[in-house]
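ok here's the first one, seq then struct tokens
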Amino acid sequence: MKIYGVTGWKNAGKTGLMERLVTEITGRGISVSTVKHAHHTFDVDHPGKDSHRHRVAGATEVLLASRNRFALMHELRDAEEPPLHVLLGKLSPVDLVLVEGYKRDRHPKIEAYRAVTGHDLIAPGDKTIRALASDTPLELDRPVFDLNDSPAIADFILTEVGL
């Protein structure tokens, strides 16, 4: 599996870019999975549902399955957060895994940037950021794409990973 990241500060447009890239790349017949890092507690389960009740009762893992999908929830129960490479090993094989977040990991990335956020660019201090997707023109030592030019960004990523 090839791995490529989308990174950037909060409200920089990462999730929208990820969504557009998944649509663009899968539309080309390439299989894609995604990994999204969250800095906060999240829940994919709902209080009162059987699976939630199993988890609250103390189950380490709860696998919820139907004819349309399955979800495996794993409670860390005070264990360390698994590193990205361990999480990637849990995915079924696909052509490309797009990773949202994981700024500090060493996989190649594109930085999403929106000037309105007021944040500094991450790219100047991080050579794992191979290009930028920006809503404003920038002068950098690497390619800069329009944040909404999904076909061009997809072309760049697919070339980078050899797909």
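and now the second one, same deal
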Amino acid sequence: MDEFCLGENPHPEKAVRAIRFEPVSGRLIISGVSAGNARSMPLVWEKRKKVLLRMPPEVSFDSTLDEHGLFSQIEIDLGQVISATPQLVYPIEHWEKTRQNLQPEASPTEIVFEYSAHPDACFHLFGNRTISVTDLDNDARQGEPVLQSIHTPNQSVILRVVE
């Protein structure tokens, strides 16, 4: 009897037609069986990233979570939405004339989401709209919600310790 490591087919050139479980002794617990065509192991996600959701002006973001901890207007398969915060809007055009402690305003239609996901993941937006993680910046339609990736700079830092 073959043992599978992390559910991988030990003979990938052969198609799996059936699975038979035979407990050697005691009880057998199966926690899940699935099949798919992911580019890599679906349980391995990329590092945290951010996206900006631009919603139509007539739609406001619902920040409440359901009983499973999910937002009603945005979900992601093969991943997890970590946080959602309104985009902060600073008075850029009048910056020199504003006082120094002026706080930014929260945008009602632009929300920043932090997420972690597999490269094959898709965002599922309200209105039955689906956007692939790989197609984030290429899928803009007039009047519909738009997701735009926020590129975070990665920079090496050199620390010098002086005693």
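notes on #2: The chain has no helices and seven strands. Residues 49-150 form one domain.
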